[in-house]
């Protein structure tokens, strides 16, 4: 065809058709190559062998994709160290804990699985289920109690072996284990706390029930009002796609200060996929040899594994039990009568009774001074609303009139 002349309509159509056929042929060839590659080499016919040797580029590309899939699959696998191996590692860890000048702990959902709260990215985690399009049936969160790991951390803090705890969990279990609030940064909020942001300083209301049943991504009002100024209260939860701005319970200031002083970071039960995005927590502005030494306890792969001084593949409760043994501390038992939530909680006013339908944390027997709503029987269906049910669904935005 002559240069400069634009193509006629039929020529354009013919060119498009030829391109379509070329691509279709390419796709078919790729399918054939993929089928042949799935066969053991000995079972391939001479024709198939010829096709393979003539399609080196496709073979390389398919091989690259296969390796990538394999790598991703391995990362999701839960791996356990042999008991002997784990014990050896914990012995090393205990020496590090004893010698540390400023030890901080980062925790994720993996430390709460023993409290029957599903973790986030484990095989049956919230994220994994949502990715597979399944709904989440949650055990009633009000039944959850601090685990052996939560209790051990509070004990180590009391004995000044742990200086600060940064948690991604919203389940309030660190607070309920007796860890003082100033030693805790709850980066994604706390399901038992609602705040008035109209009051200065922000006025906090700790409750004995999950305050998030009406809240979701970008919708934070809990339906109750500030006793002081009458403004609407909001939850403290930071959903996917949001930036947390509250001072408490997020406590970013203390988290970054602790990280800047830390010589050891112990990560427990977190995939670190979210935490790795906060460079301050890892002192990334410091030269590598001045950064804190990293110890990771997690069953699955984490993006920080290559940087860790030691990776322990074990359940958090198993590791902490061994660690507390090595350090010679008995693990304090969780006692409901000592649960700080009951002394921190602001009781509902009579007109606020019925402003929620979540089962409250049952008070210890005989604790009559704590005003609690009558326990309501709620069905054990999937939880709707709140940080737990909605909001964490990646990419789904649902608007509902509030
Ligand atoms: Zn107020």
Question: Could you explain how this protein is built, in words?
Answer:
- This protein has helices at residues 9-38, 46-53, 56-76, 83-99, 126-131, 148-158, 173-176, 252-261, 316-327, 340-344, 386-389; strands spanning 103-107, 164-167, 184-186, 193-196, 203-206, 221-225, 232-235, 264-268, 293-297, 310-312.
- It is an alpha/beta fold and 402 residues long.
- The strands form two sheets. It has a six-stranded parallel β-sheet with strand order 3-2-1-8-9-10, sandwiched between helices. Strands 5-4-7-6 form a four-stranded antiparallel β-sheet, with no helix packed on it.
- A hairpin with a 6-residue loop joins β6 and β7.
- α4 (83-99) packs across α9 (316-327).
- The model is unreliable at 368-402 (pLDDT under 50).
- Bound molecules: zinc ion.
């Amino acid at each position: 065809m002559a240069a400069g002349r634009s193509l006629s309509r039929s020529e354009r159509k013919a060119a498009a058709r030829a391109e379509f056929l070329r691509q279709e042929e390419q796709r078919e060839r790729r399918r054939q190559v993929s089928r042949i590659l799935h066969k053991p080499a000995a079972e391939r016919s001479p024709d198939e062998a010829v096709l393979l040797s003539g399609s080196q580029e496709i073979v390389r590309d398919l091989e690259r994709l296969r390796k990538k899939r394999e790598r991703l699959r391995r990362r999701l696998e839960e791996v356990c160290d042999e008991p002997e191996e784990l014990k050896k590692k914990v012995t090393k860890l205990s020496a590090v804990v004893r010698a540390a000048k400023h030890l901080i702990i980062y925790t994720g959902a993996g430390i709460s699985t023993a409290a029957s709260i599903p973790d986030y990215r484990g095989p049956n985690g919230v994220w994994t289920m949502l990715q597979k399009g399944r709904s989440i049936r949650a055990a009633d969160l009000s039944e959850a109690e601090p685990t052996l790991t939560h209790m051990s951390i509070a004990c180590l803090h009391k004995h000044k072996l742990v200086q600060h705890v940064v948690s991604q969990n919203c389940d309030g279990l660190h607070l309920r284990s007796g860890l003082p609030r100033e030693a805790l940064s709850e980066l994604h909020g706390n399901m038992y706390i609602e705040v008035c942001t109209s009051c200065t300083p922000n006025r906090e209301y700790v409750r004995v029930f999950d305050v998030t049943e009406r809240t979701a991504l970008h919708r934070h009002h809990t339906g109750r009002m500030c006793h002081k100024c009458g403004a609407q209260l909001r939850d403290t939860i930071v959903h996917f796609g949001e930036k947390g701005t509250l001072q408490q319970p997020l406590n970013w200031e203390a988290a970054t200060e602790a990280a800047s002083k830390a010589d050891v970071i112990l990560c427990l039960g977190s995939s670190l996929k979210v935490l790795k995005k906060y460079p301050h927590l890892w002192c990334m502005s410091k030269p590598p040899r001045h950064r804190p030494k990293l110890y990771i306890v997690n069953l699955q792969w984490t993006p920080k594994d290559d940087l860790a001084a030691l990776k322990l593949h074990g359940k958090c409760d198993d590791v902490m039990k061994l660690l507390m043994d090595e350090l010679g501390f008995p693990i304090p038992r969780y006692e409901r009568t000592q649960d700080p939530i009951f002394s921190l909680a602001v009781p509902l006013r009579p007109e606020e009774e019925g402003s929620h339908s979540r089962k409250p944390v049952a008070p210890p027997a005989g604790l009559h001074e704590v005003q609690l709503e009558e326990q309501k029987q709620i069905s054990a269906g999937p939880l709707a609303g709140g940080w737990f049910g909605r909001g964490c669904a990646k990419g789904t935005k649902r608007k509902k009139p509030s």
